[in-house]
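Quick start: read one record
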Amino acid sequence: MQTEKATFGAGCFWGVEETFRNLKGVLSTSVGYAGGRKENPTYQDVCTDKTGHAEVVEVEFDPSQINYDELLNVFWSNHNPTTLNRQGPDVGTQYRSVIFYHSPEQEATAKTSKEKVAKSGRFNRTIVTQIEPAPKFWRAEEYHQRYLQKRGQSHCTV
């Protein structure tokens, strides 16, 4: 079976992971940090807002069951891509909206998807989502993995 990876930042990674983990065709998810300057950052490091990392979810999926475009639709539907460096009450660069692509095909699909969402009228403000090549992924501490599932929750409560 041929699998692919997708990496998304859309606010606090606990809820983002839970959303993707439950999709048919998603084989595994890991929460972690990407896009920053510090090697092997900890949650405490990232929370200082000085490392440049985003909280992200790395999704391993089977493209014969769910395609990248479908994952992007879930990404756009589950956060506000018009708020710079924040989602709801969470503020800081680690909560930025970002798509880290793993191939030229993913880059093209992500850019097309962003344009489509921008023109759809769904959001009345500019989409600030960054689209960048996937950097090194640093897996977060074990207590962050499947955080909501471990607590019997399906989403973060604000």
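The CA atoms of residues 101 and 108 lie 9 Å apart.
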